[in-house]
Amino acid sequence: MAHGPSQNFFSRWLFSTNHKDIGTLYLWFSFAMFLLGGFFAMVIRAELFQPGMQLIKPEFFVQMTTMHGLVMVFGAIMPAFVGLANWMIPMMIGAPDMALPRMNNLSFWILPFAFTMLTATLFMEGGGPNFGWTFYAPLSTTYAPDTVNYFIFGVHMMGASSIMGSINIIATVMNMRAPGMTYMKMPLFVWTWVITAFLLVAVMPVLAGAVTMMLMDINFGTSFFDAAGGGDPVLFQHVFWFFGHPEVYIIILPAFGVVSQIIPTFSRKPLFGYSSMVYATASIAFLSFIVWAHHMFTVGMPIAGELYFMYATMLIAVPTGVKVFNWITTMYKGALTFETPMLFSIAFVILFTFGGFTGMMLSIAAADTQYHDTYFVVAHFHYVMVAGAVFSGTAAVYYWLPKWCGRMYDETMGKVQFWIAFIAFNITFMPQHFLGLAGMPRRYSDYGLQFADWNMVSSIGAFLYGGAQLLFLYNVIRTIGWGKPIDDPQVWEGAVGLEWTVPTPAPFHTFSTPPVVK
Amino acid sequence: MMKRAKALFLGLLSPSSLLLAGSVSAESATRQLNMPRGVTEVSQAAYDIHMIMIWICTVIGVLVFGFMFYVMYAHRKSRGVTAANFHENLVVEILWTIIPALILIVMAVPATTALLKVYDTGNPDIDIKVTGYQWKWQYEYIGEGVKFMSELRTSQDEIYGRAPKGEHYLREVTQPLVIPTNKKVRFLITGNDVIHSWWVPDFGVKRDAVPGLFTAAWAKTDQPGTYVGECTELCGLGHAFMPVVVEVKEEAEYEEWLAGKKEEAALYASTIGKQWTFDELMVKGEEVYGRSCAGCHQANGEGIAGVFPALKDSPIALGPAEGHIGILIEGVAGSSMQSFAEQLSEVEIAAVVHYERNAWGNDVGDIVQPIDVLNFKQSQ
Ligand code: HEM
Ligand SMILES: [Cu+2]
Questions:
Q1: Which of A37, A233, B10, B50 could be joined to A71 by an S-S link, Cβ 3.0–4.6 Å?
Q2: What is the pTM of this model?
Q3: Torsions phi, psi of A375, nearest 5?
Q4: Is the ipTM value over 0.85, yes or no?
Q5: Do residue A275 and residue B101 have CB atoms under 8 angstroms apart?
């Protein structure tokens, strides 16, 4: 039997090469970032509670919207799924660890430094990044505060971390599957992550290219994005969205994987249409590369380009629909129970589909002329990213936590958290559709009186939603410390897969000798 | 209050309530839940396809979620069911791939016609150049010699809660854009500094104002009235404070307005020669300062440490007048201090320079005349 974790706290966590410990680090880091990004969101919603500037100045407001977006996307959601991948992929494919354990350690430990630096800019002269998470030039170049250089460095670090994490996942899945674990037997979570990892390897360098061009424009006199020097600000948007659109699928594909594990378990029935799920995921990933300019419908592209990007975007609805139908058909004629992970997964299906509907509306270029850069878009992407990625991440934690720590969480508290989160989420974001349609642009620090009512409703919802996260934190800590011990390897009655064959709690090393999959 | 609350809850019900709320009137503006239908062919095309999409999504949603809720009710373990074991069915899988694809093809037809309308910018009767500045709009009637800035009129006091907010809070400008009814007006949109975006919902016009690039949009309407829009591309800290207001006037009225504008332009040219008194310049200067400078340098002239320099006690404000005028005319490269040469008239520049040199305890005491500004410009 291999040895256990180091007894020294620092050497255990700083030098760890164990996929479970690194997974844990990723998950705690991402939760910390989730709270930080959430705090920024609370500041935003508090300022928008009423018309007028009450609490902060406009220049700080734009820093808050920018940091909220950056921290949530790059600090909270992405690392959360890398953490889940670290914990679960080796256990799901019967591997003893990740293929490249030292790189695994490095790819994690880059992140705290990147985000400390990014956050520190808020306290520097000139303030933090104030150009939106999409950082369009020339606002982010010629007109940016000097701290933009820290931002650029931070993005490079996160990119390096993501690329290393992805290469590790690809290498693990390609080389370390247990005998008999063919590709088409892999759990869907593994499949969605491999595809995500390929997306990451493909587009993170593009993002790095974009920020490097910015760096050159700002410090070395080039004019990639400066019209006065022969460059083109629109070029920035093309490069950014060539990264940015795949990025939104990088966020959602692992979430698809999570719910594809959970729904069959609590339906006590195998996933419907496994192979079509795999093909749908692959087609979504492919399509995500060829639709980027749907974020630029108002930038004045030639009509041929506009038509092309409109048709291509509409196509995404087809594989996305297939996934939704498969999940629902998995539930059909099952024997359903509604534990907390299942509740979050069902809410995921409903609310994500709703976000898909607004996505289809946004894809219609002529209508997008009206929606673009309003709260309608804000509502759209929070339905897919919060009710999508965050709900599924929460579901994943509740689903696998008993396996991780050998203790059961408090079901009642989980359900209470679910209902508060579900209701508060909708109170927050449903009215934002109305605000956007009625004409309220996004990233506004102040607004006309006609938008007052819904903004107040939305802010109240947001505070509630924020509160629900504290309950989540409490429930997780309580479980780890004082939860009811369990030792059933399977944990859930309907759970199937290699991760449920190892003892509960999962020992430090699993599958030191590979299992055989029939 | 009760009425409002009721409207709020109505909104949560269904697309049919969206429909009811779609009609615009000033009174119901606070309850508007849906996209406005607007007053141009383009905005109406956008609205129509928007409604088609809402209904398609509603029907699909009712079917899909209806089935899902049925399953959640009927196939729950607590009712004693046992789980089936099937996991594929080629026929339904093909069907639910093909049917959505067909729906999409059907949707693509109206989506394409609507987009063609947006792009139908040829053969305009009037061309207006729209330029986005941090944080105001400039309108130029091409070929008419008429050009002016349109800035937020809401006071800082209202924004910061030191005065009650007026009815048109953040929806009022110093000078609205004026266009005639029944003429095809083409907007040629560009940006001066960063990217802005010019949006008038009731026209269905939203086009980015990109520095170095022109984008085109158009509007033609037979309905006179005032239409309010916004800047929709993040352009810095004043992003929320540069609304768009367009007044559509009957043709004759428009012609009269335009003639008046031309006269004004001529008159303005003549005021440059006038000798202004110290106090006249202070009054005028304070007004210009409040509009164009206080956003960054603050009403008290103290700026924001590390971001916007203070003018109070600044060496430039206390130094020779040419240097001070020069900064306004040339701007400071690479900072948000832009050139005001095109935005402010000679009179305004003279007045504001004079004001900055003699306000908040600055006491240079000299008088800067419009002619000095003109001379400076010509000596360049
Ligand atoms: C049926 C699928 C989807 C379609 C057709 C779709 C379509 C669109 C379109 C056309 C826009 C641009 C709107 C605008 O700026 O005017 C948009 C924005 C956005 N979408 Fe989606 N979307 C879909 C699903 C998703 C998913 C799954 C995610 C992520 C989890 C996502 C995240 C976003 C984000 C973050 C933005 C806004 C980016 C920004 O400007 O900051 N979308 N979507
Ligand atoms: Cu996209």
A1: A37
A2: 0.87
A3: -65, -15
A4: yes
A5: no
